[in-house]
Amino acid sequence: MKITFLGHASLQIQLGSHTLLVDPFITGNPKASHIDTDTLQADFILITHAHQDHILDVESIAKRTGAVLISNFEIITHFQEKGIEGHPMNHGGSWSFDFGKVKYVNAIHTSGFPDGSYGGQPGGFVIEGEHKTIYIAGDTALTYDMKLIPLQTKLDLAVLPIGDNFTMGIDDAILASDFVECDKILGYHYDTFGYIEIDHDLAKRKFFEKGKDLMLLGIGESLEL
Ligand code: NI
Ligand code: MN
Protein backbone atom coordinates (compact mmCIF):
# COMPACT_ATOMS: atom_id res chain seq x y z
CA MET A 1 0.00 0.00 0.00
CA LYS A 2 1.48 3.31 -1.10
CA ILE A 3 0.09 6.53 0.37
CA THR A 4 0.81 9.92 -1.15
CA PHE A 5 0.00 13.15 0.68
CA LEU A 6 -1.64 15.67 -1.65
CA GLY A 7 -1.94 18.44 0.91
CA HIS A 8 -4.48 19.30 3.61
CA ALA A 9 -6.62 16.14 4.02
CA SER A 10 -6.10 14.83 0.49
CA LEU A 11 -4.46 11.46 -0.02
CA GLN A 12 -3.81 9.13 -2.90
CA ILE A 13 -3.63 5.44 -2.02
CA GLN A 14 -2.26 2.84 -4.39
CA LEU A 15 -3.61 -0.62 -3.61
CA GLY A 16 -2.48 -3.16 -6.17
CA SER A 17 -3.79 -1.98 -9.52
CA HIS A 18 -6.34 0.35 -7.91
CA THR A 19 -5.93 4.04 -7.15
CA LEU A 20 -7.97 5.65 -4.40
CA LEU A 21 -8.24 9.35 -3.72
CA VAL A 22 -9.39 10.65 -0.35
CA ASP A 23 -10.98 14.09 0.14
CA PRO A 24 -9.48 15.81 -2.92
CA PHE A 25 -8.97 19.52 -2.19
CA ILE A 26 -6.11 20.57 -4.40
CA THR A 27 -7.07 23.43 -6.71
CA GLY A 28 -8.11 25.49 -3.67
CA ASN A 29 -4.86 24.87 -1.82
CA PRO A 30 -2.06 27.25 -2.89
CA LYS A 31 0.45 25.01 -1.09
CA ALA A 32 -0.47 22.17 -3.51
CA SER A 33 -0.12 24.21 -6.71
CA HIS A 34 2.53 21.76 -7.99
CA ILE A 35 -0.02 18.90 -7.97
CA ASP A 36 -1.75 18.64 -11.34
CA THR A 37 -5.39 17.81 -10.67
CA ASP A 38 -6.01 17.27 -14.38
CA THR A 39 -3.72 14.23 -14.52
CA LEU A 40 -4.51 12.63 -11.13
CA GLN A 41 -5.74 9.09 -11.56
CA ALA A 42 -8.58 7.63 -9.49
CA ASP A 43 -10.68 4.48 -9.56
CA PHE A 44 -12.43 5.41 -6.31
CA ILE A 45 -12.81 8.66 -4.38
CA LEU A 46 -13.48 8.37 -0.66
CA ILE A 47 -15.11 11.36 1.00
CA THR A 48 -15.20 11.75 4.79
CA HIS A 49 -17.64 14.68 4.92
CA ALA A 50 -19.16 17.46 2.85
CA HIS A 51 -17.02 20.47 3.75
CA GLN A 52 -15.44 22.37 0.87
CA ASP A 53 -11.91 21.57 1.99
CA HIS A 54 -12.72 17.86 1.42
CA ILE A 55 -14.89 17.86 -1.72
CA LEU A 56 -13.70 20.78 -3.88
CA ASP A 57 -12.17 18.65 -6.67
CA VAL A 58 -14.45 15.60 -6.39
CA GLU A 59 -16.75 16.54 -9.27
CA SER A 60 -14.06 17.42 -11.82
CA ILE A 61 -11.88 14.38 -11.03
CA ALA A 62 -14.83 11.96 -10.95
CA LYS A 63 -16.20 13.25 -14.26
CA ARG A 64 -12.81 13.00 -15.96
CA THR A 65 -11.77 9.61 -14.56
CA GLY A 66 -15.13 7.89 -14.04
CA ALA A 67 -14.09 7.16 -10.45
CA VAL A 68 -16.72 5.70 -8.14
CA LEU A 69 -17.37 7.69 -4.97
CA ILE A 70 -17.51 6.08 -1.53
CA SER A 71 -19.07 8.13 1.25
CA ASN A 72 -22.12 8.49 3.42
CA PHE A 73 -25.60 8.22 1.89
CA GLU A 74 -26.27 11.96 1.73
CA ILE A 75 -22.98 12.84 0.03
CA ILE A 76 -23.42 10.04 -2.52
CA THR A 77 -26.97 11.20 -3.27
CA HIS A 78 -25.72 14.79 -3.74
CA PHE A 79 -23.16 13.69 -6.36
CA GLN A 80 -25.51 11.18 -8.03
CA GLU A 81 -27.72 14.16 -8.85
CA LYS A 82 -24.73 15.51 -10.81
CA GLY A 83 -24.47 12.22 -12.70
CA ILE A 84 -21.57 10.77 -10.70
CA GLU A 85 -21.66 7.14 -9.63
CA GLY A 86 -21.22 6.30 -5.98
CA HIS A 87 -21.43 3.66 -3.30
CA PRO A 88 -23.42 4.88 -0.28
CA MET A 89 -22.45 3.76 3.22
CA ASN A 90 -23.29 4.74 6.75
CA HIS A 91 -21.61 4.52 10.12
CA GLY A 92 -20.58 1.08 11.27
CA GLY A 93 -21.07 -0.44 7.84
CA SER A 94 -18.38 -2.29 5.89
CA TRP A 95 -18.15 -3.29 2.25
CA SER A 96 -15.67 -5.36 0.28
CA PHE A 97 -14.59 -3.57 -2.89
CA ASP A 98 -12.21 -4.90 -5.58
CA PHE A 99 -9.30 -3.19 -3.84
CA GLY A 100 -10.13 -4.25 -0.27
CA LYS A 101 -12.53 -3.68 2.59
CA VAL A 102 -13.79 -0.31 3.80
CA LYS A 103 -15.58 0.49 7.05
CA TYR A 104 -17.18 3.90 7.58
CA VAL A 105 -16.56 4.84 11.20
CA ASN A 106 -17.63 7.62 13.52
CA ALA A 107 -16.16 11.09 13.59
CA ILE A 108 -17.22 14.04 15.71
CA HIS A 109 -17.46 17.07 13.44
CA THR A 110 -20.10 18.62 11.14
CA SER A 111 -20.83 17.91 7.47
CA GLY A 112 -22.81 20.65 5.70
CA PHE A 113 -22.24 21.26 1.99
CA PRO A 114 -20.85 24.70 1.04
CA ASP A 115 -24.39 25.77 -0.05
CA GLY A 116 -25.75 24.86 3.39
CA SER A 117 -27.46 21.64 2.34
CA TYR A 118 -27.25 18.57 4.55
CA GLY A 119 -24.19 16.39 4.08
CA GLY A 120 -25.12 13.62 6.50
CA GLN A 121 -22.92 12.89 9.48
CA PRO A 122 -19.14 13.03 9.08
CA GLY A 123 -17.02 9.91 9.26
CA GLY A 124 -13.66 8.29 8.88
CA PHE A 125 -12.54 5.13 7.09
CA VAL A 126 -10.80 1.93 8.07
CA ILE A 127 -9.32 0.50 4.88
CA GLU A 128 -7.94 -3.04 4.62
CA GLY A 129 -6.03 -4.22 1.58
CA GLU A 130 -2.85 -6.06 0.63
CA HIS A 131 -2.63 -7.37 4.25
CA LYS A 132 -2.36 -3.82 5.61
CA THR A 133 -4.97 -1.84 7.53
CA ILE A 134 -5.10 1.91 7.89
CA TYR A 135 -7.43 4.29 9.70
CA ILE A 136 -8.20 7.65 8.12
CA ALA A 137 -9.88 9.65 10.86
CA GLY A 138 -11.32 12.47 8.76
CA ASP A 139 -12.01 15.74 10.54
CA THR A 140 -12.78 14.76 14.09
CA ALA A 141 -12.47 15.50 17.74
CA LEU A 142 -10.89 12.93 20.00
CA THR A 143 -13.63 10.42 20.76
CA TYR A 144 -13.97 7.24 22.80
CA ASP A 145 -15.47 5.59 19.70
CA MET A 146 -11.90 5.31 18.40
CA LYS A 147 -11.38 2.58 21.02
CA LEU A 148 -13.76 0.34 19.07
CA ILE A 149 -11.36 0.11 16.13
CA PRO A 150 -8.58 -2.00 17.71
CA LEU A 151 -11.15 -4.41 19.14
CA GLN A 152 -11.48 -5.74 15.60
CA THR A 153 -8.41 -4.61 13.69
CA LYS A 154 -4.67 -4.26 14.09
CA LEU A 155 -3.77 -0.98 12.41
CA ASP A 156 -0.55 -0.46 10.46
CA LEU A 157 -1.07 3.30 10.20
CA ALA A 158 -3.37 5.95 11.65
CA VAL A 159 -3.94 9.10 9.61
CA LEU A 160 -4.98 11.74 12.12
CA PRO A 161 -5.82 15.45 11.91
CA ILE A 162 -3.39 17.46 14.03
CA GLY A 163 -4.03 21.09 13.10
CA ASP A 164 -6.34 21.94 16.02
CA ASN A 165 -9.13 24.57 15.93
CA PHE A 166 -11.42 22.61 13.54
CA THR A 167 -10.24 19.14 14.64
CA MET A 168 -8.04 17.47 17.20
CA GLY A 169 -4.74 19.14 17.92
CA ILE A 170 -1.46 17.41 18.67
CA ASP A 171 -2.12 16.46 22.30
CA ASP A 172 -5.52 14.94 21.50
CA ALA A 173 -4.10 13.16 18.45
CA ILE A 174 -1.53 11.51 20.72
CA LEU A 175 -4.41 10.22 22.86
CA ALA A 176 -6.24 9.15 19.69
CA SER A 177 -3.24 7.07 18.68
CA ASP A 178 -3.45 5.39 22.10
CA PHE A 179 -7.18 4.78 21.59
CA VAL A 180 -6.65 3.14 18.18
CA GLU A 181 -3.51 1.35 19.44
CA CYS A 182 -1.28 2.47 16.61
CA ASP A 183 2.08 4.17 17.15
CA LYS A 184 2.69 5.00 13.49
CA ILE A 185 0.86 8.19 12.62
CA LEU A 186 0.58 10.26 9.48
CA GLY A 187 -0.49 13.77 10.41
CA TYR A 188 -2.82 15.72 8.16
CA HIS A 189 -5.20 18.70 8.20
CA TYR A 190 -2.54 21.21 9.29
CA ASP A 191 -0.76 24.30 7.89
CA THR A 192 -3.21 24.88 5.01
CA PHE A 193 -4.52 28.12 6.45
CA GLY A 194 -3.83 30.31 9.45
CA TYR A 195 -6.06 28.63 12.02
CA ILE A 196 -4.30 25.30 11.68
CA GLU A 197 -0.61 26.14 11.43
CA ILE A 198 1.57 23.94 13.63
CA ASP A 199 5.17 23.73 14.81
CA HIS A 200 6.43 20.57 13.07
CA ASP A 201 9.40 19.94 15.35
CA LEU A 202 7.31 20.37 18.48
CA ALA A 203 4.62 18.04 17.12
CA LYS A 204 7.12 15.32 16.22
CA ARG A 205 8.87 15.66 19.58
CA LYS A 206 5.62 15.34 21.53
CA PHE A 207 4.74 12.11 19.70
CA PHE A 208 8.32 10.83 20.05
CA GLU A 209 8.25 11.40 23.82
CA LYS A 210 5.25 9.02 23.99
CA GLY A 211 7.08 6.38 21.95
CA LYS A 212 5.22 7.22 18.75
CA ASP A 213 6.32 8.10 15.25
CA LEU A 214 4.58 11.12 13.70
CA MET A 215 5.22 11.42 9.98
CA LEU A 216 4.64 14.73 8.21
CA LEU A 217 5.00 14.27 4.47
CA GLY A 218 5.68 17.06 2.05
CA ILE A 219 2.91 17.63 -0.48
CA GLY A 220 3.45 15.03 -3.20
CA GLU A 221 5.57 12.78 -0.95
CA SER A 222 4.70 9.14 -0.35
CA LEU A 223 5.14 6.43 2.23
CA GLU A 224 4.98 2.71 1.64
CA LEU A 225 3.42 0.20 4.03
NI1 NI B 1 -14.50 19.68 8.04
MN1 MN C 1 -11.59 20.08 7.05
CATH H level: which superfamily? Answer: Ribonuclease Z/Hydroxyacylglutathione hydrolase-like
CATH architecture: 4-Layer Sandwich
Low-confidence stretches: none
- Which word captures the global form? globular
Ligand roster: nickel (II) ion, manganese (II) ion
Nearest-integer average pLDDT: 98
CATH topology: Metallo-beta-lactamase, Chain A
Number of helices: 6
Overall number of strands = 14
Can you write the helix and strand succession as a string?
A: EEEEHHEHEEEEEHEHEHEE
User: Any idea how many domains?
Assistant: 1
What is the distance, rounded to the nearest whole angstrom, between the alpha carbons of the first and last residues? 5 Å
Rg is: 16 Å
Helix content bin:
10-25%
CATH class: Alpha Beta
The percent range for strand residues is 25-35%
- Strands side by side in the biggest sheet: 6-5-4-3-2-1-14
Written overview of the protein:
This protein has a single domain, classed as Ribonuclease Z/Hydroxyacylglutathione hydrolase-like (Metallo-beta-lactamase, Chain A), CATH 3.60.15.10. β10, α4 and β11 form a beta-alpha-beta unit. It has 225 residues and is an alpha/beta fold. The model has no long low-confidence stretch (mean pLDDT 98). Strands 6-5-4-3-2-1-14 form a seven-stranded mixed sheet, covered by helices on one side. 20% of the residues lie in helices and 29% in strands. 49% of the residues are buried. The protein is globular. The protein binds nickel (II) ion (NI) and manganese (II) ion. Nickel (II) ion binds next to loops.
